[in-house]
Amino acid sequence: MRDATLHIIGTGPGDPELLTLKALKTLTACPVIAAPKASPSGSSTALAIISQAVDLDGKTVFELYFPMKKIRAGKAPEEEVSRAWRAAAATIIACLDQGLDVAFPTLGDPAIYSTGYYLYDTLLSMRPDIRVRFHAGIPAMSCCSAETAMPICLGNEMLAVVPATFSDERLRSTLEAFDTIVLMKVHRVLPRICRLLEETGLLAKAVLIERAGMEGERIIRDLSTIPENPHYFSTMIIRRNGGFQAPWSRDRQQAGPIPADVSAM
């Protein structure tokens, strides 16, 4: 029996058309799809995305529970979390041992706050010989940048990408230290974030993007009134240097049009 492979695949920000060609090819080829979900009785958002682009008929599909609880780098997670990770890994190992390739779709890019690496680490702790391949996906912030025609960072600007669920102290220090801040997982803590932005003088520099690139997309540039019921797919970009307009372009506008006799030279 040949050695099978687990493919951890970034699905992108939500629009199935933003799946990479490699993701589509791999998802189509894998006979087993094991998709993460955030609650035992819920459904997998990643699975919903790929099902719009990949025919799942004839495939074995698992939805694996990954508790949405805080994980601190370098520290062991809660027992409920570890138990769920081990159960998910055991399901995948059983398929791999049958010689079946498994695809594990995860939102955005697997490298950025993804369940994919928790699964990978758990698998290696159980079976160090497991074959795993990662497939990059388009991160939400890239799609948000494209939809707003606003860069993430330019020149010598410094960038921070952090979950909005961080403590006030950590968020405040980040807001004060970086030129561009991308806040993920904004939907549950938006009032608190807007308060911090107002206190740091950055509220007018922030843009909230919901469902970037998808039907129902909403771009909110005025956060003086906090939007109600922000969507799960919500990302905020804060640019200390404001929306995109190059400094030399601003200088030209302030100086006025070039005189006719000069432009003719």
- What is the CATH topology of the largest domain? Cobalt-precorrin-4 Transmethylase, domain 1
From the spread of the alpha carbons, the general shape counts as: globular
Helix content: 25-40%
Portion in beta strands: 15-25%
- Give the strand tally: 10
CATH evolutionary superfamily of the largest domain: Tetrapyrrole methylase, N-terminal domain
Main sheet makeup: 5 strands, parallel
Biggest sheet: strands side by side, in what order? Answer: 3-2-4-1-5
- Please give the radius of gyration in angstroms: 22 Å
- What's the level 1 CATH class of the largest domain? Alpha Beta
Topology, please?
Layout: E1 5-10, H1 21-29, E2 32-37, H2 45-50, E3 60-65, H3 79-97, E4 102-106, H4 115-126, E5 131-135, H5 140-148, E6 159-163, H6 168-177, E7 180-184, H7 190-199, E8 206-210, E9 218-220, E10 234-239, H8 247-255, H9 260-263
Parallel strand pairs: 1-4, 1-5, 2-3, 2-4, 6-7
Antiparallel strand pairs: 7-10, 8-9, 8-10
Helix pairs in contact: 3-4
Describe the structure.
With about 260 residues, the protein is an alpha/beta fold. The protein has two domains: about 5-135, Cobalt-precorrin-4 Transmethylase, domain 1; about 140-245, 2-Layer Sandwich (Methyltransferase, Cobalt-precorrin-4 Transmethylase, Domain 2), CATH 3.30.950. About 35% of the residues lie in helices and about 20% in strands. It contains nine helices and ten strands. The protein has helices spanning about 20-30, 45-50, 80-95, 115-125, 140-150, 170-175, 190-200, 245-255, 260-265; strands spanning about 5-10, 30-35, 60-65, 100-105, 130-135, 160-165, 180-185, 205-210, 220, 235-240. It has a five-stranded parallel sheet, with helices on both faces. A five-stranded mixed sheet has the order 6-7-10-8-9, sandwiched between helices. Strand 8 (about 205-210) and strand 9 form a beta hairpin. The longest helix has 19 residues, at about 80-95. The radius of gyration is 22 Å and the shape is globular. It starts with a strand and ends with a helix.
